[in-house]
Amino acid sequence: MNALEHLIDTYCDGWSAPTPEERERLIRATLADDATYCDPRADDLPVPDLLAHISGVQAKRPGAKVVRTSAVDVHHGFARFHWHVVLPDGTTLPEGLDVVELSPDGKRIQHVLGFFGPLQRRSSSTSN
Amino acid sequence: MNALEHLIDTYCDGWSAPTPEERERLIRATLADDATYCDPRADDLPVPDLLAHISGVQAKRPGAKVVRTSAVDVHHGFARFHWHVVLPDGTTLPEGLDVVELSPDGKRIQHVLGFFGPLQRRSSSTSN
User: Fold this and answer.
1) What does each of the 128 residues of chain B score in pLDDT, given as a tens digit?
2) Which of A5, A39, A73, A116 best tests the B interface by mutation, with the highest count of B CBs <10 A?
3) Residue A46: which residues within 8 A CB-CB, separation 6 or more?
4) Which residues contact A124 (CB under 8 A, 6 or more apart)?
5) Which residues from chain B sit within 8 angstroms of residue A81, using beta carbons?
6) Can you give the C-alpha Rg of chain B in angstroms?
């Protein structure tokens, strides 16, 4: 596993850890101090707000883990990867996509942009 | 087709038009004046450099068209969609992903981040 994969997986562990203290340790180790997080249900959260958001998600789905499901594809400081949520009974939720901007030194994440679920196929109707 | 799909498809047409004049008309109609473009072979190009880049791609693959292949998934001013290149003989190249940031009014594209090909599955080896 290379350093970038390790960074991404540690970040995913930050969503998955059972206690707020462990989540904060992992998220702060992987996100830049001024990083922001955006997904369909979260609008550009700074790190403290992201930690509260993750606690809310964990409260709704106790024991859920976020696991990377793809390789990490990176160029020019931007990386993409797929992930899914694994529930304690082993059920998985539909695969999402994260696109992350790395910090200038490449060692931490500066911005996360998440999308939920697979991209739907284009509608066959192309009429205007 | 909604306004965002129309914007994205017109932008793709800007990659596909046969003449530099038509490409410039379409790209300038869809990208903000200070927009930038980044993909694995292009590092944050402003619009004039993007137009030169597209001309280079068209010179290598005359008549190639870029066609959106997925729905457009959008939240908080960021959209993702899949696309592929269709060669004049109908051959298609592997599907890529674009993630675009929209301008504040949502009517033009502020930034394009492109990735080539499908995301590879995660390696089965998870040892460190």
Assistant:
1) 799 999 999 999 999 999 999 999 999 999 999 999 999 999 999 999 999 999 999 999 999 999 999 999 999 999 999 999 999 999 999 999 999 999 999 999 999 999 999 999 987 655 43
2) A73
3) A34, A35, A36
4) none
5) 119
6) 15
Of B6, B68, B97, the CB nearest to A122: B68
**Measured between CB atoms, which of A40, A81, A121 is closest to B70?**
A121
Q: Closest approach of chain A CAs to the CA of B60, in angstroms?
A: 22
Q: DSSP labels for chain A?
A: --HHHHHHHHHHHHHH-SSHHHHHHHHHHHEEEEEEEEETTEEEEEHHHHHHHHHHHHHHSTT-EEEE-B--EEETTEEEEEEEEE-TTS-BPPPEEEEEEEPTTSSSEEEEEEE-SPPPBPPS----
pTM as predicted = 0.94
